[in-house]
Amino acid sequence: xANINVTIPDLGGASDVEIIELCVAVGDTxxxxxxxxxxxxxxxSMEIPSPSSGVVSALHMSEGAICNVGDLLAxxxxxxxxxxxxxxxxxxxxxxxxxxxxxxxxAATSAGSSAEVEILVPDLGGANDVEVIxxxxxxxxxxxxxxxxxxxxxxxxSMEIPATTGGTLISLKLSEGNKxxxxxxxxxxxxxxxxxxxxxxxxxxxxxxxxxxxxxxxxETAPTKPAQTATVVVTPDGNxxxxxxxxxxxxxxxxxxxxxTASGPKDRILKEDIQTFVKHRLSTPVAPVGAGSAVIDKPxxxxxxxxxxxxxxxxxxxxxxTAQNMTRSWLNVPHVTQFDHADITDLEAFRKGxxxxxxxxxxxxxxxxxxxxxxxxxxxxxxxxxxxxxxxGEHLIQKSYVNIGVAVDTxxxxxxxxxxxVDQKSIxxxxxxxxxxxxxxxxxxxxxxxxxxxxxxxxxxxxIGGTSFTPIVNTPEVAILGVSxxxxxxxxxxxxFEPRLMMPLSLSYDHRAINGADAAxxxxxxxxxxxxxxxxxx
Length: 538
Ligand code: CAO
Hints:
- By secondary structure, the protein is α+β, with helices and mostly antiparallel strands.
- It contains nine helices and 33 strands.
- Strands 23, 26, 29, 30, 31, 32 and 33 form a seven-stranded mixed sheet that branches.
- The site of oxidized coenzyme A has 20 residues, from α7, β27, α8 and β30.
């Protein structure tokens, strides 16, 4: 049994590096290569592996401690894994696998003041046939010592293999997908050699394996060749633990690692975690801008054929667009619906009195043109309803024109043609336009311009039935009036109940733009105007 002092290895030039995780405790039995601690520089995290198997007899650092190369990290009681006779102390122990003499060829030649240096694959923590997943350089590149040449990936970790020397990369021997082993030739770098008497006299072959983070060992009895692992866990965003390959995949897919749930050991994000995240996102509608960060899961897919015969029917384009618009409005707009009734008894008497004249004019007057006219007046009276919210979240766009859309149900889907300058048009004009637009809509003749520029929408279900409903605001408008079927109801006139024709009004509004009191004033105003249409001429 030997007492092995484990010190902090070369950290790629980094100093004052923080220990972010202790992986062992005093008394733990560790195998060679087991992680002792995890360090984090501003660029990367790295695990410091145990150079030998044994029992941790002392830990000289705790989480949060700042360390530098050579600092004493831990004591191990164990067997030295290797005892090269030529090495006498840890300072001389190589940081990486010494090239085997058999593999050492005269691969480098001195060229006056330059030499070609072969860079070999270092010890990969015992892993064999490791895949190259990324080539970080190209032939002709000027590289510095420490620059990443390639990224390899074992089934446990990704590792960046850095250049051991700077210079011009004159030959790259690997490509993506290659399987590599320790000692394989990765690249040849032409580097400048500072000529010394020795180098001039006998230029030595240069063959280097890159130093990966490793634990150097100071051993009292015999030096131990350090184990090699290069589990580089890049963590620029705080406590995220993800290897370079995972990070690269995240970058390619535009995935924010902060949002990914890690399933690897010690909360490490794995490739599968990214894939799961992306799959989930693709199948989940993301709330549009303005709806905060809410993400709502789709209901699970169900095979309805298990319950009976079914047919899959394609939605029309209008139907699909309507679905999107409705979802967007529903998710963006804080909706409130204000209900009211308008007494249209007198209006209906007047309207019916127009029947003969309407026939003469070749048209028909329904309650809708009166609704349009009353809403146009209300929009003038309450201009806060004639706005859109600016996307900057800080402004309202106040409109001076009064264009009102009318929802029309067609076999192809719901469309909303817009009637322009409603405040300036007569009931006759509006009647003709409603009929014309309704016909155009049903004949699929509406042009995009016919459906743009609305300030407010009326959705009338009065010809069908119902007592009230909650229409969805037709964004970017901020309010919509739902009209239900007028019905005779008993109303107290002060001395008795009398039958009155009451039309239900359902005003949905965007509570970001309009407050409830204004909504109540708006519907009260509509009820007043529709209750006595002499107000329409005021
Ligand atoms: N209460 C009672 N009766 C009403 C009414 C109301 N609120 N609104 C309309 N009516 C009556 C009309 O007076 C007419 O009856 P008469 O012929 O006896 O006068 C009858 O219902 C049919 O009216 P209409 O639907 O032909 O005309 P309109 O002006 O009310 O509507 C338009 C025009 C284009 C909206 C219509 O053609 C249409 O498509 N209606 C379908 C309803 C619809 O799609 N609404 C959109 C809902 S989507 O959210």
